[in-house]
Amino acid sequence: MKTNNQQPTTNNRKGILLVNLGSPRSTSVPDVREYLDEFLMDEKVIDYRWFFRALLVQGIILNTRPAKSAEAYKTVWTDEGSPLIVITQRIQKKLQKLVDVPVEIGMRYAQPSIEAGIQKLVDQGVSEIVLFPLYPQYAMSTTETVIDKAEEVRKKKFPGIKINYVQPFYNREIYIDCLAESIREKLPENFDALQFSYHGVPERHIYKTDPTNTCNLNDCCSRENNPSHQFCYRHQCFDVTNSVIKKLGLPKEKVMVTFQSRLGKDKWMEPYTDETLETIGKKGVKNLAIVCPAFVSDCLETLEEISVEGKHQFEHGGGENFHYIPCLNDEDRWIDVVKTLCEEKLHEFYLV
Ligand SMILES: C=CC1=C(C)c2cc3[nH]c(cc4nc(cc5[nH]c(cc1n2)c(C)c5CCC(=O)O)C(CCC(=O)O)=C4C)c(C)c3C=C
Ligand SMILES: [Fe+2]
Ligand SMILES: [Fe+2]
């Protein structure tokens, strides 16, 4: 790795850990149940006190959801395994060809775990790790829980190593350029609207992670400057959308932002993707393009919930042509962005 004339202050070996959400081991109902149990019992995902979380997850959700989710996973599973894991492995392999430090992957839930990923790096002599949570926007249920887990593992198992975290990159020009170009290439010639569908979160999560208490989940998320923006997932979704459509030269009237994948009875961020898809056909949107920039790799939530279910909802509501725009996945231009963001953090090790 080039060091821009910075000399390493130590000989410590460096490495990169790419972290994604994770998938069940297989599409069997017990494996999906085990995965959902670990995922939904995370207090940063379902943020109730332990007793109420256990009552909801283990007493209610795990009775019915694993069978339903297993069916959905079956529709997207490949011979190599879960799309999310397979794509993350492809990113790893491509990045490994571009950098001269070891690159491993770890998943927040299930396997390969963050601990297994760190162990692989340590086995190669690494003691300074750049950990990259593969989420463009900050959320308590994504970036924050990855960092919590990695710190827990580091303190318990690897107290001698250092970890430097890549920060959410939703407002980095290199990422916006990359996303805009990727969308531009895949947009159909004729479309009435471009829908940006982001994974939703309960509104409570946004209030909870706002250290400034200034976000009202209303117009403040769209303001240019507000102290809450650093931790406001809603703002960060709007920001990505606005920056991309500016690059693409699209009029705002042609663009929609919606939130998908809600679970349970809490109030999640609105408008909801499924409800929007059911109604826009009748409002004149016959040709729709849709993109999901909360995900860098295609997964259950994009391949099944949007490409299959979303298409049905749109057609059921009177829509005609539904065009799903895939995630960045292992596109070369995205791998270059991953490389740049990791290198910045590797260089910080040289500066201390
Ligand atoms: C309270 C529940 C959930 C919150 C909050 C949540 C936030 C959140 N999730 C992602 C990214 C992904 N989620 C995925 C699947 C998934 N998400 C939830 C629940 C919450 N997510 C569930 C129960 C599931 C499992 C599938 C199902 O039963 O519906 C995935 C796909 C995983 C895969 O294997 O393909 C991703 C990726 C983000 C970015 C986010 C907050 C911003
Ligand atoms: Fe999710
Ligand atoms: Fe906000």
UniProtKB/TrEMBL annotation:
<dbReference type="GO" id="GO:0046872">
    <property type="term" value="F:metal ion binding"/>
</dbReference>
<keyword id="KW-0627">Porphyrin biosynthesis</keyword>
<keyword id="KW-0350">Heme biosynthesis</keyword>
<dbReference type="InterPro" id="IPR001015">
    <property type="entry name" value="Ferrochelatase"/>
</dbReference>
<comment type="pathway">
    <text>Porphyrin-containing compound metabolism; protoheme biosynthesis; protoheme from protoporphyrin-IX: step 1/1.</text>
</comment>
<keyword id="KW-0408">Iron</keyword>
<comment type="similarity">
    <text>Belongs to the ferrochelatase family.</text>
</comment>
<comment type="function">
    <text>Catalyzes the ferrous insertion into protoporphyrin IX.</text>
</comment>
<dbReference type="Pfam" id="PF00762">
    <property type="entry name" value="Ferrochelatase"/>
</dbReference>
<dbReference type="GO" id="GO:0004325">
    <property type="term" value="F:ferrochelatase activity"/>
</dbReference>
<dbReference type="InterPro" id="IPR033644">
    <property type="entry name" value="Ferrochelatase_C"/>
</dbReference>
<protein>
    <recommendedName>
        <fullName>Ferrochelatase</fullName>
        <ecNumber>4.98.1.1</ecNumber>
    </recommendedName>
</protein>
<keyword id="KW-0456">Lyase</keyword>
<keyword id="KW-0479">Metal-binding</keyword>
<dbReference type="InterPro" id="IPR033659">
    <property type="entry name" value="Ferrochelatase_N"/>
</dbReference>
<feature type="binding site">
    <location>
        <position position="301"/>
    </location>
    <ligand>
        <name>Fe(2+)</name>
    </ligand>
</feature>
<dbReference type="GO" id="GO:0005737">
    <property type="term" value="C:cytoplasm"/>
</dbReference>
<dbReference type="GO" id="GO:0006783">
    <property type="term" value="P:heme biosynthetic process"/>
</dbReference>
<feature type="binding site">
    <location>
        <position position="199"/>
    </location>
    <ligand>
        <name>Fe(2+)</name>
    </ligand>
</feature>
<keyword id="KW-0963">Cytoplasm</keyword>
